[in-house]
């Protein structure tokens, strides 16, 4: 695709995403349709399908727009930690805060079946919104651009291995277990399977994640982990 066509495509995507954001803010994600977004953007639904494979594709791109506060706050949360493990736990606090505030948004991004390569959707989104990542350390950029949340965690936990906090063989299982904790709590919270308030869901998730982490931290290093935000 030549540069001119790429610029035109990016411009059209922004028109539709601006319209989609307005629909979500006014009516909620569950009430968003391709037709509503196209009408608001001043185009036909058939034109929208030239840029989005289906409604789930459009929902994903639009939902990513609502993660800007999480992304902007993440470095500040991580800065509260005095070591790699604490930084990762603070990053979990930031993620839980925003995901349980906007469960519909975060479930689309990290839980729903989108019927296509989610990594490609992440890459496409950040190709258009590359300025969203300006100023972030390279390590955080690589984490934010990884669609698989378990892999996101593993990327960061690797630093804890290098720092002597966690053994290499525990990286993947820790990443998977903490992701399953969040998904399980998010599903429970969204479907009202228990009477958790938002704050209770956040604290319970952080407690379980922290317990899971502490079980694999080397005994000689556990006293260095002072995270207690739950």
UniProtKB/TrEMBL annotation:
Residues 33-52 bind DNA. SUPFAM superfamilies: Homeodomain-like. Gene3D superfamilies: Tetracycline Repressor, domain 2. Keywords: DNA-binding. InterPro entries: Homeodomain-like_sf, HTH_TetR. One of its GO terms (molecular function) is DNA binding. It comes from the Bacteria. Residues 10-70 form the HTH tetR-type domain. It holds the Pfam family TetR_N. This is TetR/AcrR family transcriptional regulator.
């Amino acid at each position: 695709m030549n540069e001119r066509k790429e610029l035109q495509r990016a411009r059209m995507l922004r028109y539709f995403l601006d319209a989609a954001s307005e629909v979500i803010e006014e009516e909620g994600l569950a009430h968003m349709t391709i037709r509503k977004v196209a009408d608001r953007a001043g185009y036909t639904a058939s034109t929208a399908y030239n840029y989005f494979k289906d409604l789930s594709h459009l929902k994903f791109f639009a939902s990513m727009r609502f993660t800007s506060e999480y992304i902007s706050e993440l470095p500040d949360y991580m800065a509260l930690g005095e070591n790699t493990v604490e930084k990762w736990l603070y990053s979990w606090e930031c993620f839980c805060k925003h995901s349980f505030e906007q469960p519909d948004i975060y479930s689309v991004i990290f839980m729903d079946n989108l019927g296509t390569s989610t990594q490609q959707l992440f890459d496409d989104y950040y190709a258009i919104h590359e300025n969203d990542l300006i100023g972030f350390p390279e390590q955080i950029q690589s984490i934010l651009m990884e669609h698989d949340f378990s892999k996101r965690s593993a990327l960061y936990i690797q630093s804890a291995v290098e720092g002597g906090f966690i053994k290499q063989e525990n990286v993947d299982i820790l990443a998977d277990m903490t992701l399953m904790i969040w998904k399980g709590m998010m599903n429970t919270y969204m479907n009202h399977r228990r009477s958790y308030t938002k704050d209770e869901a956040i604290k319970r998730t952080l407690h379980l994640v922290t317990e899971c982490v502490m079980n694999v931290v080397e005994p000689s290093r556990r006293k260095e982990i002072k995270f207690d935000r739950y």
